[in-house]
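FYI - complex with thiamine diphosphate, inputs then prediction.
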Amino acid sequence: MAVRAEFQIFQILNEEGNTVRGIPELSPDRLLAVYQGMKTIRLLDEKMIGLQRQGRIGFYGASTGEEAAVIGSAEALKPEDWIFPALRQGGALLYRGFHLKDFISQVFGNSGDLHKGHQMPCHYSSRSFHHTAWSSCIATQLPHAVGAGYASKYLNETSVIFAYLGDGATSTADFHAALNFAGVFRVPVVFFCQNNQWAISVPLEKQTAVKFLSLKASAYGIPGICVDGNDVLACYHASKEAADKARKGAGPTFIEAVTFRVGAHTTSDDPKLYRDESMVEAWKKRDPILRMRKFLESEKLWNQKMEKDLDKKIADEIQDAIEKVESFPPPEVETLFEDTFLKKSWNLIEQEKDLNCILHPEQLTANRF
Ligand SMILES: Cc1ncc(C[n+]2csc(CCOP(=O)(O)OP(=O)(O)O)c2C)c(N)n1
């Protein structure tokens, strides 16, 4: 079943959770893992937003409503594949096996954080899980992803690169440069665009005049696919097909997953100031998690008791991880000067000495002044 949906939205599960075409080959275990992955993001988002409101963390960017896009695409990846994320793909890193404690430590930015608090919260990365750090500058990850894909091709490796972006990123120069290069050099990259309809306060109709963002791909000689981003099986199927194609040397694909940002852009934003809540309520009825749950129930793979048990299991794991992470002290001050350069530059050495004088004035010697 090839996905050819340039002018319509490809779907496998409709909003009632019924199949409208054959389902992809996924074992019951994988289907349940997908469901658990989506639920984990949802419960984690709720909890972390609560922590931010209590002043226990500084910032959080949620993926609520976009779980199917994140997990459906991540399910298509092999361990050797790389993710070049935007803001909302942390759930994919968790889904690929990153530890919850390390994940939450990144948000706290304390000494438990593998990156010693050097990044903004929710800008997760892990070399061992092939998940690069996002720079926060919209779309800069796209040329980087294409460069990594070009390297994979040049070295005759089989790894495929997933480059994630939002709808807002499609209006940037980096988007153009990345898709153009990928198209010309047939780079093994899958561009996965979570079209959540908003770029902070800019709605899609002010972002572009095209009906589907996936149409933009044709200008670069790249197949553009549009999928229902709240249908996890459709997201998986399109991603798997695109990844397989890229792995075989058949070049890049652009996937637009049509979804909706149900919550605020981040905890620093208040969407009530610029959008009508009725729109949010309408999209909540298309909830990707509920849709998959209905499907699993119809397949006799899920029931109410399992749902209750899973909720408790995930909530306990999150609570346990938060308690551990919150007990970690801040990173050592010296770590501020580490990891940027292999060899510390002269000005960093000077700054480190100055800071040391402020922190330990008793160590000041007459010689220094
Ligand atoms: C180059 C650049 N311009 C502007 C911003 C400010 N900014 C932060 S997030 C954002 C919107 C991003 O929207 P989108 O790409 O649709 O992704 P979403 O956050 O909706 O997932 C903007 C404009 C930025 N971070 N980088």
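Residues 332-369 form one domain. The chain has a mean pLDDT of 95.
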